[in-house]
């Protein structure tokens, strides 16, 4: 169950990071509220996951999911640039996350 909490916490990190961008520095009310609500939920789920998953693993997976998700949202929804170097960097993050999951007991 902890890994499910961690997965959802990471997905919510993508939502709050994306909505923070859309809030334009917290000047737009709806994206600002979405940011704060999903941020709180993401932190809570991360804390629940950390009951059984080691700190280093949980935090790295959480930020990794958020990083990869934010990259995907940026490319697809915000027309951010994509090139081979950026894709390679994301592949390295994914590789690290897989290795962390495989090495956890």
Automatic annotation (TrEMBL):
<feature type="transmembrane region" description="Helical">
    <location>
        <begin position="57"/>
        <end position="78"/>
    </location>
</feature>
<dbReference type="InterPro" id="IPR037185">
    <property type="entry name" value="EmrE-like"/>
</dbReference>
<dbReference type="InterPro" id="IPR000390">
    <property type="entry name" value="Small_drug/metabolite_transptr"/>
</dbReference>
<protein>
    <recommendedName>
        <fullName>Guanidinium exporter</fullName>
    </recommendedName>
</protein>
<dbReference type="InterPro" id="IPR045324">
    <property type="entry name" value="Small_multidrug_res"/>
</dbReference>
<keyword id="KW-0472">Membrane</keyword>
<keyword id="KW-1003">Cell membrane</keyword>
<dbReference type="Pfam" id="PF00893">
    <property type="entry name" value="Multi_Drug_Res"/>
</dbReference>
<feature type="transmembrane region" description="Helical">
    <location>
        <begin position="84"/>
        <end position="102"/>
    </location>
</feature>
<feature type="transmembrane region" description="Helical">
    <location>
        <begin position="33"/>
        <end position="50"/>
    </location>
</feature>
<keyword id="KW-0812">Transmembrane</keyword>
<keyword id="KW-0813">Transport</keyword>
<comment type="similarity">
    <text>Belongs to the drug/metabolite transporter (DMT) superfamily. Small multidrug resistance (SMR) (TC 2.A.7.1) family. Gdx/SugE subfamily.</text>
</comment>
<keyword id="KW-1133">Transmembrane helix</keyword>
């Amino acid at each position: 169950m902890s890994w499910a909490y961690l997965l959802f916490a990471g997905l919510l990190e993508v939502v709050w990071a994306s909505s923070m961008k859309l809030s334009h520095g917290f000047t737009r009310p709806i994206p600002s509220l979405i940011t704060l609500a999903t941020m709180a939920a993401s932190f809570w789920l991360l804390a629940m996951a950390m009951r059984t998953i080691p700190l280093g693993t949980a935090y790295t997976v959480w930020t990794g999911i958020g990083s990869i998700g934010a990259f995907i949202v940026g490319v697809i929804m915000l027309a951010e640039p994509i090139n081979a170097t950026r894709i390679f960097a994301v592949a390295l993050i994914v590789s690290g996350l897989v290795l962390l999951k495989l090495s956890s007991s």
